[in-house]
Amino acid sequence: MARIMIVDDVATIRQIVSSVLKDVGYKVIEAASAEEALALAEVKRSHLVVTDVNMPGKSGLDLITALRAVKTYDKTPIVILAKDANDENIQKAQGLGACGWIAKPFTPESLLATINQILVDHYVR
Predict the structure, then answer these.
(1) 124: CB partners within 8 A, 6+ apart
(2) Phi, psi values for residue 33, rounded to 5°
(3) pTM over 0.70
(4) Three-state secondary structure call for residue 32
């Protein structure tokens, strides 16, 4: 089963996303910051990254830029968590290489549908 990295400075969001994904069999790695995510990325390969945009220190946009510069993550699907579909950060993130977004608040069903579709699109082609 795919390993997914969840990056969000809010522990509750990480726990909710992690719980939903683990319940269907995904392996999950959690990071509380972009800096922690980058350190984890060096030692554990993830098949997909889900990141918040607004975090203290490096933002989710900074994380996307940094991950795209790492050979093992240059094509890894990255999904952002955004407050709404009109968030200008969605367009910025897509310009940096994010392949999708999940609106907050989200339902477990919408979270899984987005992640499953991106994994299928990326790995089954």
Answers:
(1) none
(2) -155, 165
(3) yes
(4) coil
Distance of CA 37 to the CA centre of its chain: 10
Name the nearest CA neighbour of 104 among 88, 87, 81: 81
Please give the DSSP secondary-structure letter assigned to residue 6.
Answer: E
Q: Compute the distance between CA of residue 80 and CA of residue 82 in angstroms, rounded to an integer.
A: 6
Q: pLDDT above 90 covers what percent of the chain?
A: 83
User: What DSSP string describes 59-96?
Assistant: -HHHHHHHHHTSGGGSS--EEEEESSTT-HHHHHHHHH
Average pLDDT over residues 79-100: 85
Residue 56 DSSP code: S
pLDDT digits (tens, 9 = 90+) for 15-47: 999 999 999 999 999 999 999 999 999 999 999
